[in-house]
Amino acid sequence: MTDMSLDKIRSSRKRRGYLEGQILVAMPGMTDQRFARSVIYLCAHSKEGAMGIVVNQKAKRVSFSDLLVQLEVINEQEVIRLPKRAGGVQVLKGGPVETQRGFVLHSSDYHVEDTTMPIDKTVSLTATVDILRAIAQGTGPYQAVLALGYAGWSPGQLEKEIQQNGWLSCEADADLIFGADLDSKYGRAMRKIGIDPAMLASEAGHA
User: C-alpha distances in angstroms, 81 versus 22, 137, 185?
Assistant: First the structure.
């Protein structure tokens, strides 16, 4: 995995194609342990490279309300008054690149010109504090997850990893992206592809 600037990602999206908007699922033989059993929503993919958000790894020791306070979006006394939807926003470990930066994957009912990047008709990406304020005020998107960091691939790197059987892909759906049950996402994504994760584990044990 390598860094890929968001500016380059944004420009690359002018040429639609590849696996953008799809789910990547790590195969059991994934050699990079940071991505073992990972499920990644691919936000951009072109000849310029790729960028995605890991959607099944929870960030440790931090909650959405904690981050709102740390970023001075709200003060500690306002936490109790957060809308119910805001309290349910998951904070994810989105990947090893720019881990101190937040990226909000969200439903397309929220859009700010020049800062929101539509990925497909139903999912968008926003990386500014404005969306956090909107969520805290109850005017944000219907569905959202906040990821710390992202996964990035240099030109041709993801294609090579796929050829080496590092990843499979499947159609994305709202539950795989936004669902609260992170532990079950890997198995559900595998079954969506048509693979029984238990059979893979058995085969690996007899390798």
Answer: 36, 9, 31
In angstroms, the CA 155 to CA 186 distance is 26
Q: Measuring CA to CA, which residue among 161, 65, 144 is closest to residue 103?
A: 144
3-state secondary structure of 33: helix
Indicate the residue type of 163: Q
Q: DSSP string spanning 4-28?
A: --HHHHHHHTTS--TTTTEEEEE-T
- Phi-psi label, residue 28: left if phi above 0, alpha if psi -120 to 50, beta otherwise: alpha
Euclidean distance between the first and the last CA atom of the chain, given in angstroms as a whole number: 27
The CATH class given to the 6-195 domain equals alpha beta
pLDDT in tens, the chain (207 residues): 344 455 555 555 445 558 999 999 999 878 888 999 999 999 999 999 999 999 999 999 899 999 999 999 999 888 888 898 888 899 999 999 999 999 999 999 999 998 999 999 999 999 999 999 999 999 999 999 999 999 999 999 999 999 998 999 999 999 999 999 999 999 999 999 998 877 765 444 444
β-bridge pairing 123-126 and 97-107: antiparallel
Q: Tokens representing 81? A: 């008054």
Burial 15-26 (b: 16+ CB within 10 A, else e): eeebbbbbbbbb
Distance of CA 54 to the CA centre of its chain: 4
